[in-house]
Design brief:
Blueprint: H1 6-21, H2 26-41, E1 45-53, E2 56-63, E3 74-76, H3 80-88, E4 92-94, E5 116-124, E6 127-136, H4 144-162, E7 181-184, E8 186-189, E9 192-199, H5 214-237, H6 245-258, H7 261-272, H8 277-294, H9 298-319, E10 333-337, H10 342-348, E11 354-357, H11 365-373, E12 377-379, H12 384-387, E13 393-397, E14 402-405, H13 409-430, E15 437-438, E16 444-451, H14 459-463, E17 468-472, H15 474-478, H16 486-500, E18 505-508, H17 536-541, H18 543-557, E19 562-569, H19 572-591, E20 600-606, H20 609-612, H21 616-621, E21 624-627, H22 629-636, H23 644-647, H24 655-670, E22 675-677, H25 685-693, E23 698-701, H26 703-714, H27 718-730, H28 737-747
Parallel strand pairs: 9-10, 10-11, 11-12, 16-17, 16-23, 17-18, 18-19, 19-20, 20-21, 21-22
Antiparallel strand pairs: 1-2, 1-6, 2-3, 4-5, 5-6, 7-14, 8-12, 9-13, 13-14, 15-16
Helix pairs in contact: 1-2, 1-4, 5-6, 5-9, 6-9, 7-8, 8-9, 10-11, 13-26, 16-18, 18-19, 25-26, 25-27
Bound molecules: phosphoenolpyruvate and magnesium ion (MG).
Phosphoenolpyruvate is lined by residues 470, 472, 511, 607, 628-631, 678-679.
Amino acid sequence: MPKGSESESRKLLGRLRDTLAEEGAGQERLDRITTIIADSMGTDVCSIYLFRDAETLELCATEGLNKEAVHQTRMRVGEGLVGRVARSRNPVNAPDAPSARGFRFMPETGEEIFSSFLGLPIQRLGETLGVLVVQSKESRLYTDDEVYALEVVAMVLAEMTELGAFQDEGAAMGARHTQQALFRGGVAQEGAAEGHVYLHEPRVVVTNPIADDPHVERKRLEDAMSTLRGTVDEMLGAMGKKADKEQVKVLEAYRMFANSRSWVRRMQENIGLGLSAEAAVEKEQSATRARMESVPDAYLRERLHDLDDLSNRLLRLLTGQGKDTGAEMPDNPILVAKNIGPGELLDYGKKLKGIVLEEGSVGSHAAIVARAWAIPLVINAKRILTEALNGDHILVDGDQGVVHLRPEDSVAAAFRDKIAMQTQAQERYASIREKPATSLDGQTITLNMNAGLMADLPSLVGSGAEGVGLFRTELQFLTRARVPRRSELASIYGSVMDAAKGKPVVFRTLDIGSDKVLPYMKPTEEPNPAMGWRAIRVGLDKKGVMRMQLQALIRAANGRPLAIMFPFVAQFDEFRDARQHLLDELEREKKMGHVMPSDVKIGAMLETPSLAFAPQQFFEMADFISIGGNDLKQFFFAADRENERVRKRYDTLNVSFLSFLGQIVARCNDTNTPVSFCGEDAGRPIEAMCFSAIGMRSLSMRPASIGPVKSLLRRTDLSEAKAVIDEASASGAQSVRGAVMDWLTGRS
Ligand code: PEP
Ligand code: MG
């Protein structure tokens, strides 16, 4: 195969394009293409494998192998050399295939007579669509030029696949973007919504991957590059002196890439081999994306991200496909985006029914806006952008963090039932809104709500919560470009208390670190941020911010009762020190003539197992204790709360965890210290019922959970529930859930 020269490559691409223009079914086209590639590259075999489902590749066309094997030979990702190419998304070049790592012999193909093997991923913008393989009898390593030429061919095949050129019968050759797909992400705002996809930035479609005249294409690329450089310079120029350092850093990285000779050279080379300017950009972008997923270094990944963004801009310049494609917003729009800023989200307004992001985070500004509007938001829905098309039918389950794209009718019907049941249930709960959460055996549980924004406060009335058991104060810090001023905070906290109209509010001091990183805080590289410098540890080390926040809280109370708790206390001394700071600030504020709160309660969050074993004096000193079950559970089981893989292994109703909670309740009862549970699990009715049964008298949860939890508690005899839990615990069961569920279902 002395091929690989520019003119040979252009000739080959020209023949591929002619095939695309010819009439014929997808299968015929694919067959012709394998013949052309084998012929042009001088190989004995050319085969194309496409995905029939997310895990399985299917031989869809071949020149050189047994034709009977077409649509019969299948392998899973990672299986055999073809599967290895798909998994690694890198070429496999093996002079003696049978002795190569991972080789799997497939007798039906008759491939035993071929020694050398070269396989490349057929990929488009980081998505692998299949594998292209050439094989020869002679044992030899394919040259770099040959690999490169074949990469260009694979890229063109990816574009053709995306454009539907190979559409035919069978799962592997079915139309793309038509099958149902399920995405699992993270919960950022609960709720359920049904609607149609509205892409924040519709994907760029390259309709002309192959071009005849490299001079014209090079000129197009040069022009687009110079426009791009101009835009980046303009953006940098417009930043001014007070610009955010991070933003400047990003733009400087953009400028570096926009002037990168090697990047441009690679794209020019792609053009030389017969690609159009946009296809040349896309080929490099695919490579960048593949690297992005494999580099372990966070800094390098960020830079690759910058390069990816820049490639997007370049593609939009070349194709003229701007953000605004004129696509009408469909009915019940569900916004699908990689990520989105709060400003852009505000522009869309409340007409959105749901939001799905490929990236995003719970603490992101967009999440905060979505929460304020109560629009279901799912984050980290990986790869949804490669699948979703404008107008696609979509279901967003914000409670589970699940998204169904193009769902089957049965899935959509079940989802609608769920929405209807939720609406009905909410109506039912409204009738018990003013009633207490008193169990059948006369035990009353206080149900509070968790909040973090002014916009959460109206739920206090709607949900029937008795107060705010946890006000997370970090959101006001996360949404600003600098530390908020004391007066600003005092006014916000004051408004929260006003809105609570005398109902108690427990303010938690700043809990930053871990996944909540302040934009203006110098990032500290920590190997394990969840167990790192966070919450009260930061507060005690950087006293200025904590003191300022405490002063703001005292001023906000302005003669009203004040309840403050410190997060993530791991040992008695931390609580004692933080409490002393609050007492000092009270003294100082008093001296300055500010009105003192009518009552001050100082509590600790119990979120680390160590605190449960603190000296008796700790329990005596704390005015109240609030169990932060989200953190407590992750440290109890040593299972990261953000890692779905391990998080779900351990049930909250696990006997060890429940008995641990029981011991905490007992220690609090010994000193008459009120104890409450404010982690997410408090909002799950079965869990809430079990916590109450083991003696917890106060729970704090998201507002929408108050109704369901109250409804179950009012129908339950808690002493009977306790007996069921005790019996199940004594039986050696790992979790009491089964026994509790049997008991609940059996009694109704
Ligand atoms: C918790 O850990 O349970 C808690 C309430 O705090 P956060 O979820 O904010 O860490
Ligand atoms: Mg916590």
